[in-house]
Amino acid sequence: IWGNCLRVIKDNIPQISYQTWFEPIVPVKIDKDVLTIQVPSLFFYEYLEEQYIDLLSKTLRKELGGNAKLEYNVVMDNAHMANQQPYTLNFPTSNKADLRNRPVSVTNQEKPDIRNPFVIPGIKRLNVDPQLNGDYSFENFVEGECNRLARSASLAVAKNPGKTAFNPLFLYGNSGLGKTHLAQSIGIEVKRNMPEKTVLYVNANKFQTQFTDSVRNNSQNDFLNFYQMIDVLIIDDVQEFAGKTKTQNTFFHIFNHLHQSGKQLILTCDKAPVELHGMEDRLLSRFKWGLSADLQIPDFETRVSILNKKIYKDGLTVPEEVVYYIASNVVNNVRELEGALISLLAQATLNKKEITFETAKQIIDKLVKKTSKELSIDSISQTVCDYFGLELDILQSKTRKREIVQARQIAMFFSKGLTNSSLSTIGAKIGKKDHATVLHACKAINNLIETDKDFKGQIKEIEAQLKS
Ligand code: ADP
Ligand code: MG
């Protein structure tokens, strides 16, 4: 039967593809309408699934009838898996749509198939430096309302990597809110409890560089093999992949491979998946498979705790009123919060001065002035309201009056364009809306700018005021 299928397939694809992807397949058995085939690697299987599933299911159904199913036995190609059982991947091929959307079920086979040449003698596991920074532990991460979900999901993942529904775990939020810290905490925790696991933290840019180098040196296979043997892979700042098709493509294969073998993926991003542009749909949809959790700006109490934790850890003494002053004035970003504390200490040491409230105030005020020049959602809302002669409060009201709805949309539009805030932050601040509303607002305003000259003029005027 497999021979019949092959003949059909051979007629339908280029010879070279046939030799590469079909000749290595070994038919294992037929059990009623289930055909089992053996493929040399997970990568191989993924490629077949991606490129040839239509052809395969069509021919198979012709041979075995409408209920034909295909099972893959995958010969593991990675040395580190030598002590594990081979996997069987089960697929119903009777319904293509169903097949495409259905996550692959990977089950351990009960007894090893003797036709699986699963003996890889003498190859030791590689030791991979996980690239973790010990300071970024869970212990040093202060919990608050702003990070509750992200933190507890991270803890769950750290306890049971690859075994929770949070795969991938997608952590997102503005810069300086703790994404890198939290993602690294997971790695640290896994290494602490399961030292035998291969953990790797890598920034998306570095991944991209390694990949491009591997293409140049013709060592793409090594690159793939290396990444496919990681148990817990942390990729920081995946927004950097935007627009880089080849890197995305490679990452897609690595993602699939790891996900299907029950390995854990942790991704961080400065935007929510819905706001991420320049990313292939199939990759984006995978980003949403697990859990997306955002990191928000910490509230006052959390900011105080973060400062105190740092002060305590570094064995410093800083008067309480100074801590409060910093926490009330540096509000948007934990990195700047820590930065303020550090520069305060540096200046105090330099001038051999005690840290008093007065010196602290001087230094912090100078720092804050520098950063507040940047536009904020609040200052944008204020400017827009001033322009239309509206009270600022009215943006928060539930009214659906046209002029107010439009002012709200304009404020959202400029906040999106001129600040680094995420859609959800903008929505939350302007009228307690969700990210979809903000996205809709930006589209509506863009449409109006294109179609309505007068409106375009108004937008230009507001923009000029914002930038002056
Ligand atoms: P991001 O990757 O989101 O830009 P980072 O993880 O680099 O932000 O965080 C910036 C700084 O703030 C780091 O020094 C980090 O340790 C600290 N930080 C962020 N959030 C917290 C928190 N909840 N508790 C303690 N430190 C934090
Ligand atoms: Mg970061």
Automatic annotation (TrEMBL):
Note the Pfam families from the entry: Bac_DnaA, Bac_DnaA_C, DnaA_N
Q: Which Gene3D superfamilies match?
A: 1.10.1750.10, 1.10.8.60, 3.30.300.180, P-loop containing nucleotide triphosphate hydrolases
Residues bound to ATP are: 176, 178-180
Q: Where is this protein chiefly located?
A: cytoplasm
- GO MF terms held by the record: ATP binding; DNA replication origin binding; lipid binding
Q: Where is this region: Domain I, interacts with DnaA modulators?
A: 1-79
Could you describe the subunit structure of this protein? Oligomerizes as a right-handed, spiral filament on DNA at oriC.
Recorded protein name is Chromosomal replication initiator protein DnaA
Q: Which organism is it from?
A: Carboxylicivirga sediminis
